Amino acid sequence: MNEDAKLHDAARRLGVQAAEQLDVERLAAAVIERLRREPARATRPAWMQPAWLRIAAAVVVLVGGGLVWRQLGSPTGGAAHGAHLVTDDLTDLSADQLRDVLNTLDETLNLGSTTLPDGDLEDLDAQQLQAVLRSLEG
Amino acid sequence: MAQPQSLAASISPAPDSALIAAWQRGDEQGAAELVRRHARALARFLAGAGAPEADVEDLVQDTFIRAFRAVDRFRGHCQFRTWLLTIGGNVLKDHGRRAARHKVVPLDEGLAARDGDPHERAEAGEAEARLAVGVGELPRLQREVFLLRAQQGLEYDEIAAALDTTEGAARVHYHHAVKRLKERMQ
User: Fold this and answer.
1) Whole-model pTM?
2) Does residue B84 have a pLDDT over 60?
3) Nearest CB to B44: which of A19, A36, A41?
4) Could you tell me if A33 lies within 8 Å of chain B, comparing CB atoms?
């Protein structure tokens, strides 16, 4: 018997004993019993597959993060931009521009501490009124 | 589950497709007949692929359960038996992950129930034992292609359809498997 024939002969015999030992009728009954007893697990629809869920979660994080960023950034819009300029590169700015940036930073720093006076606006002097207006303009 | 008039009982022998349709309509006898038809081939495949002999019956059961649960996804691209065998391969892989063990049929156990010349029996048993070890060492795809071809006698186009690959790729996997097994058996 050549090598190929030997190999195929051995392959055909693989598992024969295990198959012969099988009680097919008992097995069929057991399978039916399990099908009755064990309810089918609901399969997830395609859109609920893990890959889609991961993509959806990433989109939510990006959109949510963007919204939060906008919310936090909007009250100090111009000021934030000015502050950003400072961090970008101060060496490129002229003296006037640097002064503008410093003013903007001053406004930004003062913004949190500016509070509306408890009393009537008519009681305020010109400087106080300007401060209130600036804080309202953001 | 409701049991309408059994197709398996009324028509004999019904093709697999009719039995599948019967099961999908709720006829349990359709499923039972499919088990009777294909259980032994599945057991041979699983044992040949390295399933421990003591676990073969449980694995056969698990494979049928998984197949009947997923039968709506069977598109008829290959024979039901071939599809079942590939599910058996997945069940065995999951089992292997859990158990992380392999068992080869011992030589004396393999020889116990055979007739014929004792010398030929011993030689055949030895070849079978070596082959079982060799098959167990093959990469999964090579192992399945080899068994589907050499043990189950399937054509390459059928194997390719079941394993979702090309006929050429199936031939290559078979070629590599045979080469390795020949080396193992020398």
Assistant:
1) 0.60
2) yes
3) A19
4) no
